[in-house]
Amino acid sequence: MPQEISVSYHAIKSKVYRLIDALVAGEKTEAEVQESIRRWWDLIHRADRPIARKYLLTVLERSASALDAIGDGLTFSNACEAADGPLPCEQMKAMERIAKEAGIRSAA
User: Fold this and answer.
1) What is the 3-state secondary structure (H, E, C) of the chain?
2) C-alpha–C-alpha distance, residues 51 and 58, integer Å
3) pLDDT tens, 4-60?
4) Model pTM greater than 0.70?
5) Would you say 19 and 33 are in contact if contact means Cβ atoms under 8 Å apart?
């Protein structure tokens, strides 16, 4: 019997945030997160996919906006408090890439 997957906004947001948390914590790699989201998508009934896609894109869009706001806040903070020193280049590039990728996915 197929597993029933909830496509509520809250359920999708929770799924996305759990995957982000697992990636940030180092529990999953990017490839594992991608595979996990593919498996999850395959479990969603075809009739439910349009609403699931809508909610998923909304969550990704809002997450990208949140990352942009965080990055902008850190940039402003670094400009105002040069004594602390800027974020390492690798960290800023990673944050920018995540925000860019989330924006690209939400536009698709």
Assistant:
1) CCCCCCCCHHHHHHHHHHHHHHHHCCCCCHHHHHHHHHHHHHHCCHHHHHHHHHHHHHHHHHHHHHHHHHHHHHHHHHHHCHHHCCCCHHHHHHHHHHHHHHHHHHHC
2) 11
3) 788 999 999 999 999 999 999 999 999 999 999 999 999 999 999 999 999 999 999
4) no
5) yes
